Amino acid sequence: MMQRPLLILVAILLLPVTACAADDYSDDAEKPDESVVEAIPYTSSWSAEPHIDLFDRGSELVRAAIEGGRHASFYGVYESYPGYVEALGYPDFSIADITGIVSKRNPGPGEITPLTYWYHIADIAVTAEEITAEVCDDRTLAVPSEARGRHGHAWVVTLQNTTDSPGLPGLPDLDPQSADPAVHRVPDWNVYGSWKITRLRTGGQNPRENIPHPACTQWWLSRHPDTVKVFDNYTYTPVGDVAAVPVAPQFPEWIGPSQPR
Q1: Where are the alpha helices (H) located in the chain, listed in sequence order?
Q2: Is 222 helix (H, G, I), strand (E, B) or coil?
Q3: Which of 156, 157, 152 is nearest to 220 (CA)?
């Protein structure tokens, strides 16, 4: 099969933010800037295959890796989730395994269109030492737009543990339809703990072939019954205008760690 280029997820317009310089990074920067957190115009909403527990430690780490990477793509790595810089090993990571957009220090000015990112964990393998997952994404904008061809991307995420304990998952958010103002859009604790992100990129397990997990195809088809074709497990939209979709509640929300800090 011919080699296809690794998909680099291109972020839409970027919000202005003052990122901490590397020399100025300190423990204080571990806590997200509350003014930034309140202003985040997009949410993430997750689902998973029936046999996958969305709230166990493995899935939680996959969610934190992708969400932290998305946040970094808009605001810069030093403004991402607490512990993201250390989990990523920034700036000493493998460019072959970490998509560039999730590891930019300061992405620059602009505005973010209000939207919802939808994620689905298609497959996951978990041990005490390593977690690998295949995740598909999709998005809906809260403003009218034009069809963009393919429905989303296929991600592969790997994390490796540096200790013998995987840690405990945080408190679960069991209501996808509500947003609790008392909990967090962005975690205020280091979800990653002893885990390091060693792969965070699009293109599926084999970036040369760039074929998503079959469960991704079924998920996209369930979300888009108007799909016009399926090619290499990706699904495609008909040409035309797309109506605005209100931003969905963040799900799961980051309530807090299982143990007091």
Answers
A1: 34-39, 57-75, 84-88, 214-223
A2: helix
A3: 152
pLDDT band at 33 (very low <50, low <70, confident <90, very high): low
Task: Give 130-172 pLDDT, tens digit per residue.
Answer: 999 999 999 999 999 999 899 999 999 999 999 999 999 999 9
Distance CA 98, CA 79 (A): 18
Q: What is the pLDDT of residue 9?
A: 34
CA 126 to chain centre: 18
Q: What is the structure's pLDDT at 80?
A: 95
Residue 96 Cα distances to 99, 131, 201, angstroms: 7, 18, 9
Distances (CA, A) of 25 to 14, 41, 63, 159, 224: 22, 25, 25, 24, 43
Q: How crowded is residue 77: how many other Cβ atoms within 10 Å of its Cβ? A: 26
Q: Is 220 exposed, middle or buried (0-12, 13-18, 19+ CB in 10 A)?
A: buried
Enter the pTM of the model.
0.84
Check residue 259 and give its pLDDT: 79
User: Could you give the CA distance from residue 261 to residue 259 in angstroms, rounded to a whole number?
Assistant: 6
144-176 exposure pattern, b = at least 16 Cβ within 10 A, e = fewer = ebeeeeebbbbbbbbbebeeeebbebbeebeee
Q: How far apart are CA 222 and CA 228, in angstroms?
A: 13
Distance of alpha carbon 88 from alpha carbon 50, whole angstroms? 29
